[in-house]
Design brief:
heterodimer; B: alpha+beta; SH3 type barrels; Porin; 2 domains; 3 helices; 14 strands
Chain lengths: 224, 264
């Protein structure tokens, strides 16, 4: 009888222990036991627990590009003045120099010949489209004061470049130059006032001549 | 007056302009959005190592100094424009600091900062290059844009797009060429080039005779790339083109161009 109890007790013990062992393994806490303390090597007093940090510096936001739209009046020699609008993209090389590409469009009116003669038109497509690539220089950087408490950065710049104008059914090599004023509302948003002269050769009225096409625009740009 | 054939281009020019406008406006909006999103991003911090760090009201030499950050103070770099850095001092004041002064600050771990600026070495080893050139193409004006990729410091491949504007005809040209530089580590680096492409010419509308033509071209040329500063260079080149026309004789055109480019 005594041996039977002993056997029963042992079986229970085996089941309980194996159950415990299984549970421990099941929940993954079996390996959680503290590792045996390793003998500290003789002579080492301080064990540095700090790992060397890999520092990755955040990248600096570069804002050298400026993109925007403009609108204004363009006077096409012999063809009257009309609305002009377009877009611009500039890249600032240094604090002084920048390169700029523009695309613009305007509409040509009637020459006095066309108005007086009645119906006859010199050409049908009255749209003027141009693109140009320019180099600009911020010749007079400065500040303007609005009221007592506000100052805004500004730039007066000179600009010149080359491009092409599609007008009166032809692409015409165009030189343009002018000046502009950039008013920085914030460090990233600017207002522009621009005056440019676009020069191209035209022979639509008989004799070939270089025509001056003055343009005055206002625009908004964003730096990115 | 008869309707010239070129009017077909009219409609495409209009639509292409509006597409361009739309693209650039989209780009502007994109440019604005990350600007807003960036506000929460972590900014790079540097510590002032000199007695003080001068902060100016604008990104230029003439702007007045209105605030100084003291030695040991940590400042955040908000953005960079050309060689100027917009920094935010500990008290929240923002001002512009020159690159030369920023070089004298320290990283948070105490090491010296290094704001990499392109040098002559990058001029030799940079992979990409893009530029604008203008000049004379057989008596006509030519405006060109190009992009290039360096296979190694000596050999690069370039793609060119040009608009030709003459007295009697206009056109465009696209070409691909290989450039070989014998001394790529020189500040004034001469090169030879060989390429092929397509040229399209159309007579001006005031000239009655002539049709639009598209021909293949081959060219050889030579020139120099001159390192200017930072990532910029000047480029001058001469190319001799052979236009493979459908007529009995091939046409030869000489071209001179000058312009500037940048590498990255």
């Amino acid at each position: 009888m005594e041996s039977r109890f002993r056997v029963l007790f042992l079986i229970t013990l085996v089941i309980v222990l194996s159950g415990c062992a299984a549970t421990k393994n099941l929940f993954g806490i079996g390996d959680d036991e503290a590792p045996p303390p390793t003998a500290e090597p003789p002579g080492q007093v301080i064990d540095p627990q700090v790992e060397r940090r890999e520092i990755k510096e955040p990248a600096i936001d570069r804002e050298d590009f400026e993109v925007g739209a403009f609108t204004g009046i363009m006077s096409i020699e012999d063809f009257g003045s009309d609305l002009v609008y377009g877009v611009r993209l500039a890249y600032h090389l240094t604090e002084g120099f920048f390169v700029e590409g523009s695309i613009g469009q305007s509409e040509a009116g009637l020459t006095s010949f066309e108005s007086l003669s009645g119906g006859a038109r010199l050409f049908s497509d009255r749209t003027l489209t141009y693109y140009n690539l320019n180099l600009g220089y911020n010749i007079l950087p400065g500040e303007v004061f609005v009221g007592e408490g506000r100052a805004y950065n500004t730039n007066f710049y000179l600009i010149a470049g080359l491009g092409s104008t599609r007008f009166a059914d032809d692409d015409r090599f165009t030189v343009n130059f002018g000046a502009g004023f950039r008013f920085l509302l914030t460090d990233s948003i600017a207002f522009h006032v621009d005056f440019r002269d676009h020069l191209f050769d035209i022979d639509i009225l008989g004799k070939e001549k270089t025509s001056h096409n003055l343009e005055g625009t206002v625009g908004v740009t964003v730096f990115f | 007056m008869s309707e010239p054939s070129i009017t077909i281009i009219r409609s495409t020019s209009r639509s292409s302009l509006s597409t361009w406008c739309a693209c650039l406006i989209a780009l502007a909006l994109l440019a604005l959005t990350p600007g807003l999103a960036d506000a929460d991003d972590e900014l790079r911090k540097v510590a002032v190592a000199d007695p003080y760090l001068e902060m100016r009201t604008g990104p230029g030499r003439g702007y007045p100094i209105f605030h100084v950050a003291d030695r040991g103070e940590s400042v955040e770099i908000v953005m960079q424009r050309t060689d100027w850095y917009l920094v935010r001092a500990a008290n929240g004041t923002e001002g512009w600091v020159d690159q030369a002064e920023m070089e004298l600050t320290l990283n948070p771990d105490g090491s010296e900062v290094d704001f990499a600026r392109a040098t002559l070495r990058d001029f030799t080893n940079a992979k990409w290059e893009a530029g604008i050139l203008a000049g004379d193409f057989g008596g006509a004006n030519i405006l060109s844009l190009y992009g290039g990729y360096s296979l190694n410091p000596y050999v690069s491949v370039e793609v060119w797009g040009s608009q030709i504007l003459g007295n009697f005809s206009n056109g465009w040209m696209g070409s691909v060429n290989v450039v070989h530089e014998a001394f790529p580590d020189w500040r004034v680096s001469p090169f030879f080039t060989l390429g092929a492409g397509v040229i399209h010419t159309s007579p001006k509308s005031t000239i009655i005779q002539g049709d639009d033509r598209t021909d293949r071209v081959g060219h050889v040329g030579a020139g120099v790339r001159v390192y200017a500063t930072r990532q910029f260079l000047f480029r001058i080149e001469y190319k001799s083109y052979v236009v493979f026309t459908s007529r009995d004789e091939n046409e030869e055109v000489r071209e001179w161009k000058a312009g500037f480019a940048f590498f990255f």
